[in-house]
Amino acid sequence: MKQIDQALQKIELGKKAFDEAEQILAEILQGDSVPSVIEQEPVSEPLETRMEEAGLEFEDKTPPRTDLVCPLCSSKVYDNRPNKRSGQYKETSPDFTCSNIQDCSGIVQGDVRKLRKSWWLNSKDLPQDWINTTVPHNPEADYVNTTKNNNQEEEKSSPF
Questions:
Q1: Residues of 10-29 as b/e, b for ≥16 C-beta within 10 angstroms?
Q2: Are 135 and 160 in contact (CB under 8 A)?
Q3: Distances (CA, A) of 94 to 16, 43, 81, 84, 157
């Protein structure tokens, strides 16, 4: 029994020393310009605005996605980006919304009614393949291929 108590005391001392070392390291790193391992939030200012401020012309030729599926309920997801650009929807409305307002697990209760699951381009749970696009090789083309391509040669090439 005495040996168990001694072992536990050693473990407690080691744990305490580890906590102290962690605290000292945190204090040292607090002032350094060490990059964080926490991913930075995406820039909240839209790209279009930043390009306008820089004096560059911007024209989005990406067609709305029609092949999107809700990861929560497998229902169709609407791409609202073109409607936001045209002014039909408010600028604060979501970029993507689930079509299932009945039983999707992402539904939240609003002030007056249930609100369907929605995503903005900077949402943390936005599936990356929803915004993956391939820039056309022909600069005169007025389309962007939004379908996934399994051709490995094209995946290796840079879209720019």
A1: eeeeeeeeeeeeeeeeeeee
A2: yes
A3: 48, 16, 8, 9, 32
Beta strands (DSSP E) in 42-111 are: 77-79, 96-98, 108-109
CA atoms within 13 A on the CB side of 104: 23
Backbone angles phi, psi at 144, to 5 degrees: -135, 130
Q: Which of 66, 68, 50, 69 is nearest to 58 (CA)?
A: 50
Listed in sequence order, the residues at least 6 apart from 36 whose beta carbon sits closer than 8 Å to its beta carbon are none
Residues 62/68, Cβ–Cβ less than 8 Å: no
Digit-coded pLDDT (tens) for 53-94: 888 776 666 677 888 999 999 999 999 988 888 889 998 999
Helix (H, G, I), strand (E, B) or coil at 1: coil
Its pTM stands at: 0.47
Residue 20 and residue 27 in contact, taking contact as beta carbons nearer than 8 Å: no
Half-sphere exposure of 35 (CA within 13 A, CB side): 3
Distance in angstroms (rounded) separating the CA atoms of residues 15 and 21: 10
